[in-house]
């Protein structure tokens, strides 16, 4: 059996779309007069193991794309939508992130930090917010380039819900013939079918009550935290998105983005 037949191949619509205009826009973004009051929390503390050896001496959010860290492109997109209050959850080579972004004054915004005492996953650091938000807020991973309008996510979010997950479709090709049976009778055989599933896009609108489900110091990822919310009866909503969305936290996709942009500096 070939190696390609041993694993499922997949395609996420939106990852193969040119994002050169998006990158260009983030380099010249300015904070509009109408500013959003909601907090944006960026999860930027991971080890970046999927990106090794690029992250051996640099934290993943600081990997450069056309001369600026990927995290700068990410928050610039949000700043252009009026978001001006950011909290970065950091750990791995955290000093490099703090040295570059400081308090956010360069962009006219406020940036503060949660220094994770140990690895807290993508959800655990919510329990370390100095002040509990008094309204729903955005939580996003630090390795997603998108032109999603986060204002629409907050408008979609119902404050009576614990979380709204941004979701998108992914298409997986099963590398085998899929057999449908009834008892021992074969009804059909489909060779290497493609199946579509909803996946988490790594971006959320979160109600403050979700923090109550986390023990301070607990390591927990957002999918596990959301499952916990469901199990205790909290409402979790899905907002399907079709916006451009590129996971630059995968080394193959990061390299593809650089090649498409003609960036050979990383």
Question: What's the SSE blueprint?
Answer:
Layout: E1 9-11, H1 20-26, E2 36-44, E3 64-65, E4 68-69, H2 70-79, E5 83-90, H3 94-101, E6 110-115, E7 137-141, E8 144-146, H4 150-156, E9 163-173, E10 177-182, E11 185-191, E12 194-206, H5 222-231, E13 236-240, E14 245-247, H6 251-261
Parallel strand pairs: 2-5, 2-7, 5-6, 9-13
Antiparallel strand pairs: 1-9, 3-4, 7-12, 8-14, 9-12, 10-11
Helix pairs in contact: 1-2
Describe it for me?
Helix 1 (20-26) crosses helix 2 (70-79). The longest helix has 11 residues, at 251-261. This protein is of the alpha/beta class. 20% of the residues lie in helices and 31% in strands. It starts with 8 loop residues before the first strand and ends in a 5-residue tail after the last helix. Helix 3 (94-101) links the parallel strand 5 (83-90) and strand 6 (110-115). The chain has 6 helices and 14 strands. The model is unreliable at 1-6 (pLDDT under 50). Strands 1, 2, 5, 6, 7, 9, 12 and 13 form an 8-stranded mixed β-sheet that branches.
Report the total helices.
Answer: 6
Percentage beta strand:
25-35%
* Average of per-residue pLDDT values: 90
Helix content: 10-25%
Distance between the termini: 36 Å
Sheet of most strands? 8 strands, mixed
Provide the low-confidence segments as ranges. Answer: 1-6
User: What is the SS-derived class?
Assistant: alpha/beta
Q: C-alpha Rg, in Å?
A: 20 Å
State the total count of DSSP E strands. 14
State the order of secondary-structure elements, H for helix, E for strand.
EHEEEHEHEEEHEEEEHEEH
Q: What form results from the Cα inertia axes?
A: globular
